[in-house]
Amino acid sequence: MSGGTWQARRTQIETYFDRTASETWKRLTSDAPVSGIRATVRAGRDAMRATLLSWLPADMRGLRLLDAGCGTGALSVEAAKRGASVVAIDVSRSLVQVARERSAGTPGEIRFEVGDMLDPYLGTFDHVVAMDSLIHYRAPDAVRALAGLAARTRGSILFTFAPRTVLLSAMHTVGRIFPRGDRAPAIEPVGEAALRRQIERDPGLAGFVPRHSRRIASGFYTSQAMELLAR
Protein backbone atom coordinates (compact mmCIF):
# COMPACT_ATOMS: atom_id res chain seq x y z
CA MET A 1 0.00 0.00 0.00
CA SER A 2 1.24 3.46 -0.85
CA GLY A 3 1.20 5.47 2.36
CA GLY A 4 0.82 8.67 0.35
CA THR A 5 -2.16 7.35 -1.61
CA TRP A 6 -3.87 6.02 1.53
CA GLN A 7 -3.27 9.24 3.45
CA ALA A 8 -4.42 11.49 0.59
CA ARG A 9 -7.69 9.63 0.18
CA ARG A 10 -8.18 9.42 3.94
CA THR A 11 -7.83 13.22 4.14
CA GLN A 12 -10.41 13.67 1.37
CA ILE A 13 -12.89 11.45 3.23
CA GLU A 14 -12.30 13.27 6.51
CA THR A 15 -12.84 16.67 4.86
CA TYR A 16 -15.98 15.55 3.05
CA PHE A 17 -17.74 14.13 6.10
CA ASP A 18 -16.65 16.86 8.50
CA ARG A 19 -17.21 19.90 6.29
CA THR A 20 -19.56 19.00 3.45
CA ALA A 21 -21.81 16.08 4.34
CA SER A 22 -22.00 16.02 8.13
CA GLU A 23 -25.65 17.12 8.40
CA THR A 24 -26.71 15.10 5.34
CA TRP A 25 -25.14 11.93 6.75
CA LYS A 26 -26.57 12.58 10.20
CA ARG A 27 -30.06 12.80 8.67
CA LEU A 28 -29.56 9.80 6.38
CA THR A 29 -28.61 7.57 9.31
CA SER A 30 -31.55 8.69 11.46
CA ASP A 31 -35.30 8.10 11.23
CA ALA A 32 -35.88 11.56 9.75
CA PRO A 33 -37.75 11.81 6.42
CA VAL A 34 -35.45 11.83 3.37
CA SER A 35 -35.87 11.97 -0.39
CA GLY A 36 -36.79 8.89 -2.37
CA ILE A 37 -33.21 8.42 -3.61
CA ARG A 38 -31.75 8.74 -0.14
CA ALA A 39 -34.42 6.39 1.20
CA THR A 40 -33.08 3.66 -1.10
CA VAL A 41 -29.57 4.31 0.22
CA ARG A 42 -30.81 4.13 3.80
CA ALA A 43 -32.61 0.85 3.10
CA GLY A 44 -29.54 -0.58 1.40
CA ARG A 45 -27.29 0.36 4.29
CA ASP A 46 -29.75 -1.13 6.79
CA ALA A 47 -29.78 -4.39 4.82
CA MET A 48 -25.99 -4.43 4.59
CA ARG A 49 -25.58 -3.82 8.31
CA ALA A 50 -28.04 -6.64 9.06
CA THR A 51 -26.07 -8.94 6.74
CA LEU A 52 -22.76 -8.23 8.46
CA LEU A 53 -24.28 -8.63 11.90
CA SER A 54 -25.74 -12.00 10.84
CA TRP A 55 -22.17 -13.21 10.17
CA LEU A 56 -21.07 -12.36 13.73
CA PRO A 57 -21.78 -14.54 16.78
CA ALA A 58 -25.13 -13.95 18.45
CA ASP A 59 -23.39 -14.04 21.83
CA MET A 60 -20.28 -11.85 21.78
CA ARG A 61 -19.53 -11.78 25.48
CA GLY A 62 -15.77 -11.88 25.99
CA LEU A 63 -15.10 -10.91 22.36
CA ARG A 64 -13.44 -7.73 21.12
CA LEU A 65 -14.69 -6.08 17.90
CA LEU A 66 -13.27 -3.24 15.81
CA ASP A 67 -15.86 -1.18 13.92
CA ALA A 68 -13.49 0.24 11.33
CA GLY A 69 -15.18 3.30 9.88
CA CYS A 70 -18.01 3.35 12.41
CA GLY A 71 -19.82 6.43 11.05
CA THR A 72 -22.72 7.25 13.35
CA GLY A 73 -22.29 4.01 15.28
CA ALA A 74 -25.32 1.85 14.46
CA LEU A 75 -23.34 -1.37 14.02
CA SER A 76 -21.27 -0.65 17.14
CA VAL A 77 -24.42 -0.35 19.22
CA GLU A 78 -25.80 -3.68 17.97
CA ALA A 79 -22.51 -5.48 18.64
CA ALA A 80 -22.31 -3.99 22.14
CA LYS A 81 -25.85 -5.22 22.85
CA ARG A 82 -24.59 -8.74 22.07
CA GLY A 83 -21.92 -8.31 24.74
CA ALA A 84 -18.92 -7.37 22.59
CA SER A 85 -16.26 -4.97 23.78
CA VAL A 86 -16.32 -2.55 20.84
CA VAL A 87 -13.68 -0.13 19.61
CA ALA A 88 -15.37 2.16 17.08
CA ILE A 89 -13.15 4.40 14.99
CA ASP A 90 -13.74 6.86 12.16
CA VAL A 91 -11.76 9.63 10.48
CA SER A 92 -14.69 12.03 10.86
CA ARG A 93 -14.78 13.80 14.20
CA SER A 94 -18.33 15.06 13.57
CA LEU A 95 -19.70 11.56 12.85
CA VAL A 96 -18.00 10.12 15.91
CA GLN A 97 -19.61 12.84 18.01
CA VAL A 98 -23.03 11.87 16.65
CA ALA A 99 -22.22 8.22 17.39
CA ARG A 100 -21.33 9.05 20.98
CA GLU A 101 -24.58 10.93 21.45
CA ARG A 102 -26.73 8.20 19.89
CA SER A 103 -25.08 5.39 21.85
CA ALA A 104 -25.58 7.01 25.24
CA GLY A 105 -27.28 4.54 27.55
CA THR A 106 -26.52 1.52 25.33
CA PRO A 107 -25.79 -1.57 27.41
CA GLY A 108 -22.29 -2.87 26.86
CA GLU A 109 -18.93 -1.31 26.17
CA ILE A 110 -18.14 1.00 23.24
CA ARG A 111 -14.95 3.05 23.02
CA PHE A 112 -15.12 5.70 20.31
CA GLU A 113 -11.96 6.99 18.63
CA VAL A 114 -11.19 9.52 15.91
CA GLY A 115 -8.32 8.34 13.74
CA ASP A 116 -6.99 5.68 11.39
CA MET A 117 -8.44 2.16 11.50
CA LEU A 118 -4.95 0.78 10.82
CA ASP A 119 -3.34 2.31 13.92
CA PRO A 120 -1.72 -0.56 15.90
CA TYR A 121 -2.42 1.19 19.21
CA LEU A 122 -6.05 0.04 18.89
CA GLY A 123 -4.86 -3.45 19.83
CA THR A 124 -6.00 -6.88 18.71
CA PHE A 125 -9.51 -8.14 17.98
CA ASP A 126 -11.61 -11.24 17.57
CA HIS A 127 -13.63 -9.66 14.75
CA VAL A 128 -13.25 -6.61 12.52
CA VAL A 129 -16.05 -5.00 10.51
CA ALA A 130 -15.35 -2.41 7.81
CA MET A 131 -18.75 -1.49 6.35
CA ASP A 132 -18.46 0.83 3.34
CA SER A 133 -15.23 2.30 4.72
CA LEU A 134 -12.81 0.78 2.17
CA ILE A 135 -14.93 1.48 -0.92
CA HIS A 136 -13.17 4.81 -1.54
CA TYR A 137 -9.71 3.23 -1.81
CA ARG A 138 -8.15 1.56 -4.83
CA ALA A 139 -8.21 -2.22 -4.61
CA PRO A 140 -4.47 -2.66 -3.93
CA ASP A 141 -4.65 -0.18 -1.05
CA ALA A 142 -7.83 -1.79 0.32
CA VAL A 143 -6.23 -5.24 0.22
CA ARG A 144 -3.12 -3.98 1.99
CA ALA A 145 -5.40 -2.39 4.61
CA LEU A 146 -7.11 -5.76 5.07
CA ALA A 147 -3.70 -7.38 5.52
CA GLY A 148 -2.84 -4.79 8.17
CA LEU A 149 -6.08 -5.56 10.00
CA ALA A 150 -5.50 -9.31 9.62
CA ALA A 151 -2.27 -9.04 11.60
CA ARG A 152 -4.37 -7.97 14.60
CA THR A 153 -7.44 -10.21 14.09
CA ARG A 154 -8.03 -13.68 15.51
CA GLY A 155 -11.41 -14.59 14.04
CA SER A 156 -12.88 -12.84 11.02
CA ILE A 157 -12.77 -9.67 8.96
CA LEU A 158 -16.04 -8.54 7.42
CA PHE A 159 -15.78 -5.80 4.83
CA THR A 160 -17.60 -4.34 1.87
CA PHE A 161 -16.44 -3.30 -1.57
CA ALA A 162 -18.05 -1.57 -4.52
CA PRO A 163 -18.67 -4.30 -7.12
CA ARG A 164 -17.86 -3.37 -10.69
CA THR A 165 -21.25 -2.97 -12.37
CA VAL A 166 -22.40 -0.91 -15.36
CA LEU A 167 -24.39 1.44 -13.11
CA LEU A 168 -21.57 2.02 -10.62
CA SER A 169 -19.04 2.58 -13.38
CA ALA A 170 -21.36 5.15 -15.01
CA MET A 171 -21.90 6.93 -11.69
CA HIS A 172 -18.15 6.96 -11.11
CA THR A 173 -17.59 8.59 -14.50
CA VAL A 174 -20.39 11.16 -14.13
CA GLY A 175 -19.14 12.12 -10.68
CA ARG A 176 -15.90 13.39 -12.16
CA ILE A 177 -17.66 16.21 -14.05
CA PHE A 178 -18.67 18.01 -10.85
CA PRO A 179 -16.41 20.68 -9.39
CA ARG A 180 -13.84 19.11 -7.07
CA GLY A 181 -15.20 20.92 -4.02
CA ASP A 182 -18.70 19.50 -4.58
CA ARG A 183 -17.71 15.89 -5.05
CA ALA A 184 -18.04 13.10 -2.56
CA PRO A 185 -14.89 10.98 -2.41
CA ALA A 186 -15.14 8.69 -5.43
CA ILE A 187 -15.84 5.02 -4.92
CA GLU A 188 -13.43 2.57 -6.52
CA PRO A 189 -15.37 -0.31 -8.14
CA VAL A 190 -13.62 -3.66 -8.42
CA GLY A 191 -14.69 -7.02 -9.80
CA GLU A 192 -15.14 -9.78 -7.22
CA ALA A 193 -12.91 -12.25 -9.08
CA ALA A 194 -10.12 -9.68 -9.39
CA LEU A 195 -10.43 -8.77 -5.72
CA ARG A 196 -10.29 -12.42 -4.66
CA ARG A 197 -7.09 -12.89 -6.71
CA GLN A 198 -5.45 -9.93 -5.00
CA ILE A 199 -6.48 -11.27 -1.58
CA GLU A 200 -5.09 -14.72 -2.41
CA ARG A 201 -1.77 -13.24 -3.54
CA ASP A 202 -1.22 -11.05 -0.49
CA PRO A 203 1.06 -12.82 2.02
CA GLY A 204 -0.47 -10.82 4.87
CA LEU A 205 -3.80 -12.55 4.21
CA ALA A 206 -2.43 -16.08 3.88
CA GLY A 207 -3.99 -16.99 7.20
CA PHE A 208 -7.49 -16.04 6.03
CA VAL A 209 -9.90 -17.58 3.54
CA PRO A 210 -12.95 -15.93 1.90
CA ARG A 211 -16.23 -17.47 3.01
CA HIS A 212 -19.54 -15.57 2.84
CA SER A 213 -20.22 -13.05 0.09
CA ARG A 214 -23.43 -11.13 -0.55
CA ARG A 215 -24.37 -8.18 -2.74
CA ILE A 216 -26.95 -5.63 -1.60
CA ALA A 217 -28.59 -3.49 -4.29
CA SER A 218 -31.20 -0.93 -3.30
CA GLY A 219 -31.82 1.91 -5.73
CA PHE A 220 -28.74 4.13 -5.60
CA TYR A 221 -26.98 1.87 -3.09
CA THR A 222 -24.94 -1.08 -4.32
CA SER A 223 -22.32 -2.71 -2.14
CA GLN A 224 -20.98 -6.23 -1.66
CA ALA A 225 -20.02 -7.83 1.63
CA MET A 226 -17.29 -10.44 2.04
CA GLU A 227 -16.10 -12.41 5.04
CA LEU A 228 -12.46 -13.38 5.50
CA LEU A 229 -12.24 -16.17 8.05
CA ALA A 230 -9.06 -17.07 9.95
CA ARG A 231 -7.88 -20.56 9.02
SSE layout and pairing:
Blueprint: H1 3-20, H2 22-28, H3 36-54, E1 64-68, H4 74-81, E2 85-90, H5 93-103, E3 109-114, E4 125-130, H6 139-150, E5 153-161, H7 166-175, H8 192-201, E6 208-218, E7 221-230
Parallel strand pairs: 1-2, 1-4, 2-3, 4-5
Antiparallel strand pairs: 5-7, 6-7
Helix pairs in contact: 1-2
Features:
231 residues; alpha/beta; globular
Model description:
Helices cover 41% and strands 23% of the residues. The protein has 231 residues and is an alpha/beta fold. Helix 1 crosses helix 2 (22-28). The chain is globular. Mean pLDDT is 91; it is low at 174-183.
Summed up:
By secondary structure, the protein is an alpha/beta fold. It contains eight helices and seven strands.
Largest beta-sheet details: 7 strands, mixed
Give the proportion of residues in helices. Answer: 40-55%
Strand content: 15-25%
Structural class by helix and strand composition: alpha/beta
The ordered H/E elements are HHHEHEHEEHEHHEE
Number of beta-strand segments = 7
What's the total helix number? 8
Query: What's the shape?
Result: globular
